[in-house]
Amino acid sequence: MMMGLLAFENNQGLWNGGYYSQFFGIGGVMVTVAILWLSTGYFGGIGAPFAPYFWPYLGQVPKKKERQRPVRVYMDGCFDLMHYGHANALRQAKLLGDQLVVGVVSDEEIVANKGPPVLSMEERLTLVSGLKWVDEVIPNAPYEITEEFMNTLFSKYNIDYIIHGDDPCLLPDGTDAYALAKKAGRYKQIRRTEGVSSTDIVGRILQTFKHKEGVNENAGVKSCDQMKTQLSNFLPTSRRIMQFSNGQAPSPGARVVYIDGAFDLFHAGHVEILRSARQLGDFLLVGVHDDQSIREKRGYPPIMHLHERTLGVLACRYVDEVIIGAPLEVSRDMVCYKFL
Predict the structure, then answer these.
(1) Cα–Cα distances in Å, from 252 out to 152, 181, 258, 259, 339?
(2) Cβ partners under 8 Å of residue 156, min gap 6
(3) Superfamily of domain 72-190
(4) According to CATH, what is the number of the domain 236-335?
């Protein structure tokens, strides 16, 4: 008994200043419960009985934030003769999720639904992969969102939403190519970029080369520039340029690489040369020549005007900054230019 009391003393007792041997055994347990019950009523609660007072506050205890899966969106297209309208569509699609997966429609599907493409699948894949908003590319995608392909998107690629522009996309039989996605409630829509289309660009190419070869020179038709102005309805705004721009200056001590050119009808070759240039340094600055300089050098104006070509370059993931209307010759002032 004395040894048990000493052991209890070493543990400092139940309360300071007293040793309660009567707490041992069944009777001790009953006395303890009674004391706690009485103290709950008298002091407003001690121990387990007062836990309900704290229940409303348990929700305020910080919990470990569960990591949510990124929202993945899918958008497809032919992306033939890619232009800033395509880039702007993919930019808008990326805003609807965290990761953008792009399907590039196969040559066979394009032929069956629209006619033969101008660019090969490899060229179109290079162009799409080179855009700064694209995270993943699916080659040889179908033109129509079939039930089988839609299930593949949901299960294999973890796609949450299928995106398309507000312009209708009809199959040869007149049905909506995205009908099943809409019915499944997994469809979202973006606004089509006005002022440009692949058909429009083909028209500009034909008009430009007719003028270059002297066709209809004496037929009283309007000049190439006038016709091109009618075909192009693009209205350049500072907001659009800011949307395409990275908005970042080179960090102190960064190696800045400069490359310039016309970059007319932005194509896979442009993407590859910009990628190679970016690998030479930390920051890629691209000069885009103005329309008049290109006319004087080539003898005919560019297909795409200056601001259209600027957006095409800015959309490329390897480009950090653009000089709009850069001179053909690199001056000393340009070499010594400091970014603020």
Answers:
(1) 46, 48, 17, 20, 10
(2) none
(3) HUPs (3.40.50.620)
(4) 3.40.50.620
Longest dimension (CA), the chain: 127
pLDDT averaged per 10 residues, the chain (length 340): 41 41 48 48 43 45 65 97 94 98 97 93 98 98 96 98 92 93 96 84 84 53 44 69 90 94 97 98 96 92 94 97 93 68
Neighbours of 80 (CB within 10 A): 24
In contact, 121 and 106? CB cutoff 8 Å: yes
Q: Any alpha helices (H) in 213-264, and if so which ranges?
A: 224-231, 238-244
b/e map of 175-211 (b: 16 or more CB within 10 Å)? ebbbebbeeeebbbebebbebbbbebbebbeebbeeb
Question: What six digits make up the tokens of 62?
Answer: 């910080």
User: CA angle, corner 295, sides to 289 and 296, nearest 5?
Assistant: 95
- Tokens, residue 205: 């190419």
Torsion of CA 271, 272, 275, 277, to 10 degrees: -110
Q: Are 109 and 143 in contact (CB under 8 A)?
A: yes
Distance CA 278, CA 96 (A): 29
Q: From residue 206, give the alpha-carbon distance in Å to each of 160, 195, 329.
A: 41, 18, 30
SS3 (DSSP) at 53: helix
Strand order in the sheet with 321-326: 256-261, 283-289, 321-326
Kindly report the pTM of this predicted structure.
0.74
For the chain, count helices (H), then strands (E).
14, 8
* Long-range pairs, 181-186, Cβ under 8 A, ≥24: 181/145, 181/150, 184/150, 186/150, 186/154, 186/159, 186/160, 186/161, 186/162
> How far apart (Å, rounded) are the C-alpha atoms in residues 155 and 157?
6
175 three-class SS:
coil
Among 153, 145, 137, which Cα is nearest to 103's? 137
Task: Give start-end residues of each CATH 3.40.50.620 domain in the chain.
Answer: 72-190, 236-335
